[in-house]
């Protein structure tokens, strides 16, 4: 879905060129017009040996005035579309509803000391918990979906039992340009398509911004608001509409955006927000999905952070939302759900991302180290629409692949009535020889954001910790699932739970092992951490729970100096890894 506009402008031109030539006695400053490869540079230069030579400031000031007038003109057109062309907004894209309560954005906060309000922070929490989420830097003037917000990282850095909190925007190219201009300019992928006329008008304005040089789509259009990952000696902020951005935590807890990591794709390409990092090999496995063939491209990144040759998947027949996938020791497993992407639907005045009830969902299985797609095969799984995968592994000598992941029931309401969608956590058993799939739910609750001890990625897992869904990324608590228990009678393998209390909501849980360097440590020997917001007191807290406890006992609570909006995915990064960034 997010890739929809990345291929719209294939021949966009380079941004403003600022060239400076220096010699011991001559300096020439050249300020070109936009897109100088299509027109000559016109400058006036007075020349004198042994003196400084500069272009006339007249052209610079004229160019700035023209650009300012264009910027104001495009903004006026945007405002006209929002006020007079958009139909009445449905609640899922109306900012009055989308950004209400604790979904409202917050300002950046520099590193600020926190109070440990209750208990004590365990010694293994030596590092930083970083969570990503949407946080629009400007009040939306028109339609706005929750997924459209600019990425903001909320970090709590812990050392010797003390905590420092900080939140910063991911300084993407999109964020930076819009910050300089003073208002949004990039089309919101999830909310822009309110009608055919509005869509045509928005893309006309966007095209004008590109050809005028106001925005260079080759430098990225993503908001980096979805997740955080660490591999190849680097820390990344992700969204699947763009390539990742490298970030860094300073010793004082501040967050810095370094750059767009263009080594992982071409200028108009993107990468998943859910790369899988194998702790044993150090490699990351990733992919991108597209609205053009090939609709799926799989690739690996070695332990040094170097991308390996791509495997283009032409056997995938149509574009669909592939938000997550799973890996085992020998395989990668991709879902192909009923959530399809059809840009042609825009002509009919519809959203390009929609649910196709006639499509039979599939799983695609490819060898992990495949060099092409020859050995990839697809198996139909009627009624299975995967959003997030908790883990996968192999059993019976590799003849069976077990995957634990969510399934969106009543998926037809995904876009317009998400409160009617039930997210079921399921166990799938894929018979590699017979090419069949059996599946069953492992909990009766509405669950999402399933996480594991990260050392067990791709390996047989006994425990999964999942968030109990209230609404979207707003979660009422966390449960611990024991996959060794039979579910034939009860349909539920919950062995522990913790609910945050009336009016209190958290997000995705994060598991932190107590002894990360001990290979004999028990799988559930560690802690679950999360941000929790109390809607009654309007306060956010960082809570630490004992992952082995039958009640997921709270062992520490840190009062945060600022509200943390509900968001998406995060991770804990050890101090020893932070120092190597």
From TrEMBL:
Belongs to the carotenoid oxygenase family. Coiled coil: none annotated. It comes from Rehmannia glutinosa. This is Carotenoid cleavage dioxygenase. InterPro entries: Carotenoid_Oase. The keyword Metal-binding applies. Its cofactor is Fe(2+). Keywords: Dioxygenase, Iron, Metal-binding, Oxidoreductase.
């Amino acid at each position: 879905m997010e890739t929809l506009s990345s291929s719209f402008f294939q021949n966009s031109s380079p941004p403003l060129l600022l060239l400076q030539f220096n010699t011991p006695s001559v300096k020439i400053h050249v300020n070109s017009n936009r897109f100088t490869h299509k027109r000559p540079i016109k400058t006036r230069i007075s020349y004198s040996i042994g003196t400084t030579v500069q272009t006339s400031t007249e052209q610079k000031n004229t160019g700035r005035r023209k650009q300012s007038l264009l910027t104001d003109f495009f903004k006026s057109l945007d405002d006209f579309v929002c006020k007079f062309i958009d139909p009445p907004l449905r609640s899922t894209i109306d900012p009055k509803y989308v950004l209400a309560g604790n979904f409202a954005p917050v300002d950046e906060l520099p590193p600020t000391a926190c109070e440990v309000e209750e208990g004590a922070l365990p010694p293994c929490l030596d590092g930083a918990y970083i969570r990503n989420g949407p946080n629009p830097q400007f009040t939306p003037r028109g339609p706005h979906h929750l997924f459209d917000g600019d990425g903001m990282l909320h970090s709590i850095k812990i050392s010797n039992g003390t905590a420092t909190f900080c939140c910063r925007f991911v300084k993407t190219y999109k964020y930076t340009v819009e910050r300089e201009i003073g208002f949004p300019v990039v089309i919101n992928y999830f909310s822009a398509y309110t009608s055919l006329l509005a869509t045509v008008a928005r893309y006309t304005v966007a095209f004008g911004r590109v050809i005028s040089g106001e925005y260079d789509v080759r430098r990225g259009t993503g908001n980096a608001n979805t997740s955080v990952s660490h591999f190849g000696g680097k820390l990344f902020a992700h969204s699947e509409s763009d390539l990742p951005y490298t970030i860094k935590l300073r010793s004082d807890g501040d967050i810095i955006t370094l750059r767009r990591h263009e080594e992982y794709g071409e200028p108009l390409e993107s990468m998943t927000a859910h790369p899988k990092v194998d702790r044993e090999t150090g490699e990351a496995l990733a992919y991108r999905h597209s609205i053009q063939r090939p609709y799926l491209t799989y690739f690996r990144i070695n332990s040094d952070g170097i991308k390996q040759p791509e495997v283009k998947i032409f056997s995938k027949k149509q574009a669909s939302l592939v938000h997550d996938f799973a890996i085992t020791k020998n395989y990668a497993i991709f879902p192909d759900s009923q959530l399809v992407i059809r840009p042609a639907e825009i002509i009919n005045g519809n959203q390009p991302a929609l649910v196709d009830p006639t499509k039979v969902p599939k799983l695609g299985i490819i060898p992990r180290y495949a060099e092409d797609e020859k050995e990839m095969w697809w198996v139909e799984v009627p009624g299975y629409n995967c959003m997030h995968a908790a883990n996968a592994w192999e059993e019976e000598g590799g003849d069976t692949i077990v995957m634990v992941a969510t399934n969106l029931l009543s998926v037809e309401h995904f876009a317009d009535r998400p409160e009617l969608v039930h997210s079921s956590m399921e166990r799938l058993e894929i018979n590699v020889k017979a090419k069949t799939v059996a599946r069953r739910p492992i909990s009766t609750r509405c669950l999402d954001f399933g996480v594991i001890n990260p050392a067990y990625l791709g390996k047989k897992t006994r425990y999964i910790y999942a968030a109990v869904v209230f609404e979207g990324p707003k979660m009422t608590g966390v449960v611990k699932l024991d996959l060794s228990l039979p579910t034939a009678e009860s349909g539920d393998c919950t062995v522990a739970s913790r609910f945050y209390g009336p009016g209190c909501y958290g997000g995705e849980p994060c598991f932190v092992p107590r002894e990360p360097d001990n290979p004999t440590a028990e799988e559930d020997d560690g802690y679950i951490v999360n941000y929790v917001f109390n809607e009654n007191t309007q306060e956010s807290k960082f809570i630490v729970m004992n992952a082995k406890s039958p009640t997921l006992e709270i062992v520490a609570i840190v009062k945060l100096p600022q509200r943390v909006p509900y968001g998406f995915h995060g991770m804990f990064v050890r101090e020893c890894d932070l120092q190597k960034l």
